[in-house]
Design goal:
Length: 94
């Protein structure tokens, strides 16, 4: 008898899904808790792996795009000029 067989009378048909606990002995509530815990742990493992890979990456590898930097500096300077002119005009109105 193969583990992956599609025989509906196979005793291994449902038991391979949750090999750590006997699924026939767990209540639906306990089975939900175990499944939820397993999902949370697996997602946290994936997130930890991504964080590890990001920390392992060299920081000098990434350099910002010069045109993006120029546009960002121009935008900040324009905002500073707009803010100073609006504050001067509000002082004149007082």
């Amino acid at each position: 008898m193969k583990l992956g067989s599609s025989n509906p009378g196979s005793p291994l048909r449902d038991e391979w899904i949750l090999p750590l606990c006997c699924s026939s002995q767990l209540s639906p509530y306990s089975l939900t808790l175990v499944s939820g815990l397993l999902a949370v742990v697996s997602v946290n493992i994936v997130i930890a792996f991504y964080i590890y890979m990001a920390m392992k990456e060299p920081s000098d590898k990434h350099e910002p795009d010069p045109s993006f930097l120029a546009n960002a500096k121009a935008s900040v300077n324009q905002f500073a000029v707009d803010t100073s002119t609006s504050s001067q005009s509000s002082k004149k109105q007082e």
